[in-house]
Prior knowledge:
The chain is built from three helices and no strands. The chain is an all-alpha fold. The termini are far apart. Helix content is 71%, strand content 0%. It comes from Asanoa ishikariensis.
Amino acid sequence: MQIDGVISAIVIGLVIGALGRLALPGRQRIPIWLMLLIGIAAALVGTGIASVFGVADTDGIDWIELALQVALAAGGVSLVSRRREGQRSLPRYPSR
Length: 96
């Protein structure tokens, strides 16, 4: 992978992660780096799913692929956000 591929993956990951985060109601307390990783993973998996169904390469904007990516990012952000909230709400007991 060349440097322009890495930079474009980061930019696309940020956009997809932010759109996935905006698609969810309420506030998600996850750091930006985690949103970036979720966005990159959602973009890669969404592109793979879209190519399996044959909708990855169309004329113009690939709306179905974009919708898949945003839905996957929203699911990932929701899952990570709930998991991180669950870790914070656990009571802390002193070790014996």
